[in-house]
Design a protein that fits this description.
Chain lengths: 39, 398
């Protein structure tokens, strides 16, 4: 969790999105899936 | 109603016996050269998006919904609207809790979603500095010379002579650069495994860091520790704290348990990855920035619509989080529309060779803004490789 990510989490990152609209993007973590080692 | 498929597939509507020889408008050629056609279900009933047009009746007045924070003293009022789109032919309709910035379905070609797609353009491999490519050779001349020596074949041939001549007359082949080069030492370095793994190069945005993690102790937590853990969980729930239990990514501020320093943790900067994907990736054109809830009511019948769950951005949790984001404090001159980058992480262990035991543990990032039909397609290259987790057994020596 770098300080930059923490700031992005709180304030968002301004990105010119591919569909042409400039947005403030807020990263939010939703899922985490992992595999158990066998045996 | 703007129906993007109407023009191309209109000829098949009502036609229940298409002749197999006829060139169908939805026929596409796969990368292997096969001709594929959409299935009969798609040809017969044109797929229709749920959000083609907004409901003609005026949206219900904005309602105030109290936020669901049970343990705080303050109460946040979140203003939401309820905007419902008209039901499509199958009875599906969308419910937005705020006015969407993006016109629903105006940019998504539904035909592309349901029919087998052409292979996506693979991004070209990133350019590397020459020093990286020819490592551990000290200069280009040495590299060319050694390359020609080792890869020319074990029998002397006339082609080999021509190839050697071609190498030596190159403009960047300077004899003096080879003075003092110990080729035996060079060969030893080439054969050893101390070279940097090619998949973790710093020029690609990989960062090597050492992090501190806490390994949970073996003893069971007592009452005080359990209360603290519950308080931590509530902090995360309210969006104030940050999850620190993801494997390998430890919080550097405070942790419980036996401290352990993991050296050489290779990962990519998440913010840079988000910026890069949303701005330049072709897939970002079909990202959903305005999450909504799906409802289904039988067309023609008078049922109460029941909720339908299809994508990550159709879930109640996402819609709620989105409303909260819209209500975060705003800077005075900031009127940019806000969206959420829904990050989904996955990690797994993979064997790198077909034999032997060497394994790596990569971590991947998917974006929930992408429809699952795209992210499950290998040709769409939806997974972003962002980390390598070192395995615990390799840390035991520390």
């Amino acid at each position: 969790m770098s300080p930059e990510f923490v700031r992005a989490y709180r304030e968002g990152i301004v990105v010119d999105c591919k569909d042409g609209i400039r947005r403030r993007i807020y990263p939010r973590i939703f899922t985490y899936s992992a595999d158990y080692p066998e045996k | 109603m703007a129906d993007p498929e109407a023009g191309t597939l209109a000829s098949t509507l009502g036609n229940n016996n298409p002749s197999p020889q006829a060139e169908h408008p939805s026929t596409t050629t796969t990368r292997a050269g096969r001709q594929t056609r959409a299935t009969w279900k798609v040809r017969d009933q044109v797929p229709e998006g749920e959000g083609i047009a907004f409901d003609s009746e005026a949206p219900s007045p904005p309602s105030d919904e109290p936020a669901n924070s049970s343990c705080t003293r303050r109460l946040t009022l979140l203003v939401t609207e309820r905007i419902r789109t008209a039901a499509n032919r199958f009875g599906l309709s969308r419910l937005y809790k705020r006015r969407p910035v993006q016109e629903p379905d105006s940019s998504i070609g539904l035909e592309a979603v349901y029919t087998p797609s052409q292979s996506q353009r693979i991004p070209p491999p990133p350019k590397r500095a020459i020093q990286e490519i020819i490592a551990p050779h000290p200069n280009l001349t040495t590299f060319l010379f050694n390359h020609q020596f080792w890869l020319a074949g074990h029998k002397k041939t006339r082609n080999e002579r021509t190839a050697l001549r071609d190498v030596m007359v190159r403009e960047d082949f300077k004899n003096e650069e080879m003075l003092g080069v110990n080729f035996d030492q060079l060969d030893k370095k080439l054969g050893s495994s101390t070279l940097e793994a090619p998949w973790v190069r710093e020029s690609d945005g990989w960062i090597r860091e050492s992090i501190n993690i806490g390994i949970p102790p073996l003893k069971r937590p007592n009452q005080a520790e359990r209360r603290e853990a519950a308080a931590d969980r509530q902090r995360v729930q309210r969006g104030e704290g940050l999850p620190a239990e993801s494997q390998g990514i430890g919080s550097t501020t405070s942790f419980e348990g036996v401290p352990l320093t993991v050296l050489d943790f290779w990962h990519k900067d998440l913010c840079a990855e988000i910026r890069h994907t949303f701005a330049t990736d072709d897939a970002a054109r079909s990202f959903v920035y305005d999450p909504y809830l799906l409802y289904h009511a039988r067309p023609g019948a008078d049922d109460i619509p029941e909720p339908v769950y299809s994508e990550l951005f159709n879930s109640q949790a996402i819609v709620d989080k989105d409303i909260r984001i819209q209500h975060l404090p705003r800077q005075p001159e900031d009127d940019l529309p806000r969206a959420m980058a829904m990050m989904m992480y996955h990690s797994d262990v993979t064997h790198v060779t077909q034999f032997g035991d060497s394994k790596v543990w990569p971590g991947y990032l998917y974006f929930g803004n992408q429809t699952k039909y795209e992210s499950s397609r290998p040709s769409c290259h939806a997974a972003h490789h962002i980390a390598f987790f070192p395995s615990v057994s390799s840390l035991r020596t520390m």
